[in-house]
Design goal:
homohexamer; Single alpha-helices involved in coiled-coils or other helix-helix interfaces; AhpD-like; 2 domains
Amino acid sequence: MSDRPISRFDVPDLHDLPDDIRELILGIQEKSGFVPNVFLAFARRPAEFRAFFAFHDALMDSNDGLSKAERELIVVATSATNRCLYCVVAHGAILRIRAKNPQLADQVAVNPAKADLTERERHIVDYALKVAGDSANVTDDDLDAMRAAGFTDDEIWDIGAIAALFALSNRYANFTGMRPNDEFYAMAR
Amino acid sequence: MSDRPISRFDVPDLHDLPDDIRELILGIQEKSGFVPNVFLAFARRPAEFRAFFAFHDALMDSNDGLSKAERELIVVATSATNRCLYCVVAHGAILRIRAKNPQLADQVAVNPAKADLTERERHIVDYALKVAGDSANVTDDDLDAMRAAGFTDDEIWDIGAIAALFALSNRYANFTGMRPNDEFYAMAR
Amino acid sequence: MSDRPISRFDVPDLHDLPDDIRELILGIQEKSGFVPNVFLAFARRPAEFRAFFAFHDALMDSNDGLSKAERELIVVATSATNRCLYCVVAHGAILRIRAKNPQLADQVAVNPAKADLTERERHIVDYALKVAGDSANVTDDDLDAMRAAGFTDDEIWDIGAIAALFALSNRYANFTGMRPNDEFYAMAR
Amino acid sequence: MSDRPISRFDVPDLHDLPDDIRELILGIQEKSGFVPNVFLAFARRPAEFRAFFAFHDALMDSNDGLSKAERELIVVATSATNRCLYCVVAHGAILRIRAKNPQLADQVAVNPAKADLTERERHIVDYALKVAGDSANVTDDDLDAMRAAGFTDDEIWDIGAIAALFALSNRYANFTGMRPNDEFYAMAR
Amino acid sequence: MSDRPISRFDVPDLHDLPDDIRELILGIQEKSGFVPNVFLAFARRPAEFRAFFAFHDALMDSNDGLSKAERELIVVATSATNRCLYCVVAHGAILRIRAKNPQLADQVAVNPAKADLTERERHIVDYALKVAGDSANVTDDDLDAMRAAGFTDDEIWDIGAIAALFALSNRYANFTGMRPNDEFYAMAR
Amino acid sequence: MSDRPISRFDVPDLHDLPDDIRELILGIQEKSGFVPNVFLAFARRPAEFRAFFAFHDALMDSNDGLSKAERELIVVATSATNRCLYCVVAHGAILRIRAKNPQLADQVAVNPAKADLTERERHIVDYALKVAGDSANVTDDDLDAMRAAGFTDDEIWDIGAIAALFALSNRYANFTGMRPNDEFYAMAR
């Protein structure tokens, strides 16, 4: 319903895009029924587009160690602390789907301390928020505490890396004024 | 879906409540189909219950000056800055209904700067957030700026008063750990 | 000595007020020798006036659990953190009287960490300041810690509720620019 | 009335002090009727004692440019932002005397934005608070604005220098836990 | 001289790396005389390694619009605000080389407000720091101000994108405890 | 290389200075080969000049308890948190010399949590940063913790006092815009 533009910066026409990017976008559209605006906003810069989605897929498309739902949980929690409208709305929808839980995304976005989290999820969210908001003070003690709570080094890396990737993504979305697609708001409620 | 209790403090049985409070609650249940947990959490303290809802009705049940939708907009914006889960979820639902807009509550809760607000709404939200978060620095200049933007003194008072009332309400909800009813999450999406 | 107005908003004449409010104010004047400006500033809005003082009396006029001095201690500590001139000056005077201590209010207003507090008072002030300034992070652990320190659930509720009420009161006083009466400054020094 | 010690660190006996310091302290006692605790707390370190009071006298004992009352106003405003109990209580008393105003110190300590300040005083306090709290961002523009408001370079230096001296003094008082003398609380009310 | 490990996480042996990554690292070593630790720390995760350096090269290896020195200036300013030791030390060295200025990196790292910046550089740094530290409040007005100061949309995008990339990079370096190579400290002084 | 003036305020000619100050400055020049700008900036105010350098010498020219290197470590850590360009650059050079370590100053200036500190140095820096940044919350517990870590009361006082002195010094340098001499940047790298 919003009549804001997708981005504060010009968005190229699909037919002006490099073939790989145009085909990726058309594939998404066919699969999802719409094109999330993040693809269109990044399309202005093909090299950054490719690097961003390579990063994204490396960290988000896996159930190895962290589940996909846990990965989305990190995205929603850290994007909320950075007040990134696009990421909270879009990944809130994905979290509702992945976690099969219609409330968790709203809870985490408003206040993680009041969210219905398992102990494991709370460790994940707390560490992710420290990387997102105060990474300068992450010390050996933080890693030791996570290891003591049962996390592997690869899981700890993944949590930090996802928080770092969305530190980037939130800033792109915020400086471009990226608009969430209407479809995300009501998805999987 | 949450199995958290309604409140960290004991909630009295309906039949133990003073008549006026029990009847008010039963009336709400009949009208809404459920009892918002704020009524049950406050019922522990009848005098505070009566004072709180008297305050609430004095400020929220009016279209005089500020519309009801504008009043709910203030509640969602200030409750989000205070990270009050109950108030954002419950009043987010009411805002969706009052504003006939399924996206506005989520936008304002995540980041008012990115919300689709009219100029009038932006003035309301900015002033409300100053009262909510930095009232010590509200000066004559703030009131003059609101007057210059076309607001009456009664409207300016109402914005400040609603921000003040939910400063109270958010703290009650946060220290009692008040749980939003499941019904609110999906309402009017 | 200040020649500031009582409030940035018009203050109604006594004879224009509803009977119950005018009589309440005249009763205060007879008892105290002056009318605290909070009564005059709120008189512009009879419904809010009644709700505010009902709330106030429910929480402040009791020695049940928390003493009246302890209740005023909460008011001064939280009002100072919100930098509310009216509330610190007016309730500072009342705290000096209730606690029979001419220094405590100034100490708490400037820096609770340096105030001469008993262990019980320090628990009260620390918890009240968390509700006042960071209620989003009040968790079950905070309540458990208070219970372990010997506080009943009703006392814990009262501390939070008083901090919440003055979150409201401080914001009203700050947005109206409420002026403390000259009488309060030197009272009970 | 407080039974806290004067300082967290040992305070030497008067007769163990170097002659110049003992005589200075005895002179103060004769003149004021009591010895402000700052003299006793600093006496542990004669070299720092001499340097501190030399600094103090250079900046505070003058009506050249800034009046003595304006100098004390800076001390109270900046000491309150640093939440230094000793300095707010002791210099609050001196400000009441110097400004012949029993309310100004309390007003400035609680909230400078609500204090009854002249336009000149507001410029002084605002600039002093920037030096006290955010000196890293003092730029040429700040000095130009002060010059445009009619302040000489020597006055601007004095405001910054007093804010700087009490940044030191507040930290000494805070880390030593320096206790204000009872005499200061009620003085010149 | 530091005997800290390169990273808190295991660093793979060169001969265990995928060919493209091993060859890239050996090429760097041949060209620079040493391997910056960022290559070794990221080598644990080949997909993230490739995405990160693709991102880096897309944004940093260009004199189109922003000069390479201006790009490094953004990195040092934003990495300092995030207190990322690796990035400030390593990119400080590169900035000294690119800008042919041995002081600029230290100035910007300590306090951009005191750095010897041209007006164009100050615009770049101020906007980059807003994206780095408060991207939620970047609005259309910020972009308009940059355009009015003579920046093209591609330059404005680049500043924001570099600030975003190092928001990611700083968090990776901070959570891995990435150690700057000794070589960087003294380079181009 | 910077062409900024030494100070935003006029700097007197050497031959206009009181004899003691002129001779002290000439002595420094003969010994060091240049005159650190702090001497010239303070020369505008002879009484403050004398008090400041008396304070400085009392706290910095000693190996009693704290070593000179440890004293400079406190200066760099606290000056960095106050973002004082002059003090970080000038005392960074002195720290490199005193600690015979070319990296420590840069590490501490960017992020003490990542600096290569001994356990004793970490205690010193942590306590100094609390005095510098949050002295209002220094309590008896902080002193007891330092004593338990093996520090004498005189050492604890010295750490606090040096943090306090540079709270003053940083503010003077920041409000005067004191420029670091070019010589300091490359010294002892």
